[in-house]
Amino acid sequence: MGTTEVTRAGSMRKRVGVGVAIVVALAVLVGVSGVSWREIVGELRTMDPLLLGVALVASLLAQLAWSSSTLLFLRTVEPTVPTGRVRLGYLTGTFAKQVLPFGHAGGVPLMAYVLAEEMDLEYRGTFASVTASELVVFVASLVVAAVGFGWFVVADGVASGTELVVFGLVAVLALVALAIAGFVKRRTAFRRVVHGVASVGRTVFRRAGPRLQQRLAPEAVDRGLDEFFSTFDRATSDRRTVVWAAVYAAVGWVLFALPLYLGSLAVGQSLPLALVLFVVPAAGLATLLPTPGGLGGTEVGLTAAVVVLAEVGLETAAAAVLVYRLCSYWFLLLIGGASSLFLSVGLRELR
Hints:
membrane; globular; single chain; cell membrane; transmembrane helix; TIGR00374 family protein; mainly alpha; 351 residues
């Protein structure tokens, strides 16, 4: 085994270790919080199966809506990419993001790799197209969260004592929005960041061989950035494409939020739809934890937000969130795994 493989294996073990530690810590936290699992199971046993079915469909439709956004940007680079394979590739990429530690944090490279491999596309062009798509999807999440927050404040008001929590969530989302704006508008600063990371990489992996050193050389980094920005600009130059991609992205977020709303109805508690539109996109920040799909952090964070902001019982909130995660994580894991298997057995002519 070479030095590069050893380094990668060690890095992956560290990521898995951190992820496991976080899951264990969250499990201990839940265990000492006084949650009655018997009551949660009781809530789930009374769940309406029809509402669960609708929630599952909504979760899948959300993925298809986001894949439509990716498809639009990919076709600015390669107009003949088949719709069916892009959708299957997107579901496969989602599967990879859900099962790997830091999968969501590295979602763009993973998704670009899967799509490029499945359709024999050039990776850098695919990476730029997927970056454009993911940026639009993320901006749409901020818009949906802002609309949900405004609607919730106007219609229901913020419970006394929760203002700090709400302010913190809004502040984090605003900072992320500013970071995205900086990426789009201040490319010189972005170049400096990339060159800084490449410099660190050259130092850390100086024994990994000349090939990696050449790829991280300043000239190679500049060429890669020039090609990336050229493809990114081409993908986003058509305003009609961007608008339709944004529409698909926003529809996807509304559909992705519905399972939490339907999950609450399924266990006999109606959460405000406005609150759901706010907390589900905001909970996406928990997927940046080094656990597969934000496992543990998303459940704890969403349950806490629902309890604090909707003022419902802890067990009822936990049951609704578990229904939501069944639809938005475990079900999509199954669908993504099936898509990956379908593509891997050689059935590549789907249109």
